[in-house]
């Protein structure tokens, strides 16, 4: 049975005077992996930030798990069960790897324990005492993902997690996403790396100039390649 | 008698000890300023006024309500801290989007208002606060007679400063606070109530100032200007330690108190300016401060 977990309607977002999102509409069902595709500057990062209330101002509607979140401050939105992995990874230099991992407070039940996370990401266990930003790029990305799995968040917003990483790390991340999907997480991924996203996603949305211009299911992917080629150059 | 550069060692040690008492106040005050600046980027010019309010709260508590020194040590910082939270919620929070200069101007104005009102209500002569019975008397250290109360001030300050350092650097709450200092929006997106954290931090920093005020009440005359004269030195201490550095503010607070003490014996004319000379040197040689990150 499909249950809607996230419904975004007519979402507008602004940074100061700049109007970045011009009425974004999309939905994500519970347990689905949905990928936002688009060119650089299309507004995908801004969409994730606008869901969380991290933009200058926003309007429209963001329903998360049946609750309207458009007027809530970011910390209340997180407590609707949302976990965020930002594009720049957001690892804190003032904290050790483990302090980074323990930083986010619980926002739901059923978060993974430290032991489970270290079993999932063995590198992090070895490097727990190291300053967070001294980890390698791949380790920092694992840390940024692991950090939100501890909190019990059920909706994960992942921004370009494969960006700039070595192929083996990207493969490991793909396996992680696969495992999370099997555990029933709902995931919104922003991806530039189409090859990474294609086998993982149930559905795709394409953004252009602050709007969603296309939406389709994984099964329709072959027929959409020409369009994607035009929009993204993949 | 043993001498060092023609000055009796006993005199040097005595001044060092008195300098350490002053340094204890510098450390507690600059610590609060550093925590507030680190998180909020607000240069809290009202810090001296909150310090004075702490002392006046203790004094009035004793005179009007019969609240003694020991309860005042807890109650006055709580009351002043609550006032600080009110100031943050009602006034300061509207300025975070603006240039930090506005926070400085607002708190400067607040300081003038508080000090002006205290002056209006209590005059300028100042009142003394009795040393609590348990801390009367002196220690004879051989090289000097140290009043027990002053020894207590040093001890209390070191305990307070170390505990604050411990909470910030070694606990989960402290990790959250440090993270908020580094990237607050992301922390809020993780579900931390950052506005509450900011208000509590301002309240906590201001409560530290009030605690210093209560501790100082028995060794100075409680008067409306007690904060403004001290806060200028304390700002220099914060700059020397490194804006926002916890350890820097504690160490340089204590050290500069002692350096001032030494200057009093070596070259008394310079004792009032030595801190500022050091500040100028630090700004030229290491602008981020001794403990600050470049
Ligand atoms: N803080 C900001 N202030 C003003 N404009 C911004 C800000 N952040 C992003 N923008 C603008 O918003 C538009 C969308 O940016 P966004 O980061 O959402 O794109 P994106 O789709 O994530 O692309 P990519 O991550 O590949 O650069 C861009 O034109 C960008 O210049
Ligand atoms: Mg982006």
Number of helices of chain A: 9
CATH class of chain A: Alpha Beta
Q: How many discrete structural domains of chain B?
A: 1
Secondary-structure element series of chain A: EEEHEEHEHHHHEHEHEEH
Question: Mind explaining what this structure looks like?
Answer:
The complex is a heterodimer of chains A (234) and B (294). With 234 residues, chain A is an alpha/beta fold. Chain A contains 9 helices and 10 strands. In chain A, the strands form 2 sheets. In chain A, strands 6-7-8-3-9-10 form a 6-stranded mixed beta sheet, sandwiched between helices. In chain A, strands 2-1-4-5 form a 4-stranded antiparallel beta sheet, with helices on one face. Chain A has a single domain, classed as Rossmann fold. Chain A starts with a strand and ends with a helix. By secondary structure, chain B is mainly alpha-helical. Chain B has one domain (3-285). Chain B contains 11 helices and 4 strands; from the N terminus they run ββααααββααααααα. The longest helix of chain B is centred in the first third of the chain and has 32 residues, at 9-40. The model of chain B has no long low-confidence stretch (mean pLDDT 93). Chain A binds chain B through residues 52-54, 73-75, 77-79, 83-84, 86, 90, 92-95, 99, 102-105, 107, 147-148, 151, and chain B through 172, 175-176, 178-179, 181-183, 185-195. The complex binds adenosine-5'-triphosphate (ATP) and magnesium ion. Adenosine-5'-triphosphate (ATP) is lined by residues 15, 18, 20, 38, 40-46, 87, 192 of chain A.
Features:
heterodimer, A: 234 residues, alpha/beta, Rossmann fold, six-stranded mixed beta sheet, four-stranded antiparallel beta sheet, 9 helices, 33% helix, 29% strand, globular, B: 294 residues, mainly alpha, two-stranded antiparallel ribbon, two-stranded antiparallel sheet, 4 strands, binds adenosine-5'-triphosphate, binds magnesium ion
Q: Outline of this structure?
A:
With 234 residues, chain A is α/β, with parallel strands linked by helices. Chain A has 9 helices and 10 strands. In chain A, helix 3 (97-103) runs parallel beside helix 6.
